[in-house]
Design goal:
Blueprint (H helix, E strand, L loop, with lengths): L8 H14 L4 H23 L3 H42 L2 H7 L4 H37 L4 H5 L1 H4 L2 H27 L7 H27 L1
Helix pairs in contact: 1-5, 2-3, 2-5, 3-5, 3-8, 3-9, 5-8, 8-9
Length: 222
């Protein structure tokens, strides 16, 4: 079974490296974006549309966890990781590394594709959750200033489990689609150096198209 390959040390090593690059190194970017996003949305809803700060914070929680944060996290992930994965695999193909792995009997789907897809998918789910949570912090700061304790006590009234699960599920699906297309773009590249940037741009464009298509279908079905 393909998932059983994760028991192998080389496959786990690739998975951990992908988690570190895609997830860990992008945490601060997501947190900063989330805080800025939450503050802007609260100020806009309260200042331009006359919403009370409490109502604006509830609306922010719903919009951020259900729609904005998964999509925004996916866009950042595609820009950082999809292009990197496609370029890496295309370069491996140019240098003959993929042929060498196949020649010694290493299954390419298990060693090349599986850990990258799983790593990017898990990272996408976590980054979407981080961004959404940070947006609540930014929104609470914008609505209450530094007296954030009052809003923190009301977090259970603002945030519902359903929207948190939607955030995780949608982000996971976005990451899986982006990673799969990035691997496909890198592996199908011709063995020429000039194909590496083409594979990178192809992965980004296909990832964007897939993410927006999935998001549209999700909205229509929900």
């Amino acid at each position: 079974m393909l998932l059983g390959q994760l028991r192998r040390e080389p496959v786990r090593r690739v998975l951990l490296k992908q988690l570190y690059f895609t997830g860990n190194q992008a945490v601060w970017i997501m947190l900063l974006i989330g805080v800025a996003l939450g503050g802007m949305v609260i100020l806009l809803l309260h200042g331009q549309y006359g919403q009370s700060r409490e109502a604006a914070l509830r609306l922010l929680a719903t919009l951020s966890f259900r729609d904005i944060s998964p999509l925004l996290a996916a866009l950042v992930l595609i820009a950082r990781s999809s292009s990197a994965v496609a370029s890496e695999l295309a370069a491996m193909k140019v240098h003959g590394e993929l042929d060498s792995l196949a020649a010694i009997g290493i299954p390419l789907p298990a060693y090349i594709v599986l850990p990258r897809v799983i790593g990017v998918s898990i990272s996408s789910a976590l980054l979407g959750l981080y961004l959404a949570s940070a947006s609540l912090v930014g929104g609470a700061l914008a609505s209450s200033g530094w007296e954030i304790g009052y809003q923190a006590q009301r977090i259970d009234q603002v945030l519902q489990l359903g929207v948190v699960l939607q955030c995780l599920g949608k982000s996971l699906l976005f990451g899986m689609a982006a990673a799969t297309l990035a691997c496909w773009s890198g592996l199908r590249a011709a063995p020429y150096v000039t194909e590496i940037p083409k594979a990178s741009s192809s992965a980004v464009m296909r990832g964007l198209l897939a993410v927006f298509s999935i998001n549209l279908i999700w909205v229509l079905l929900s």
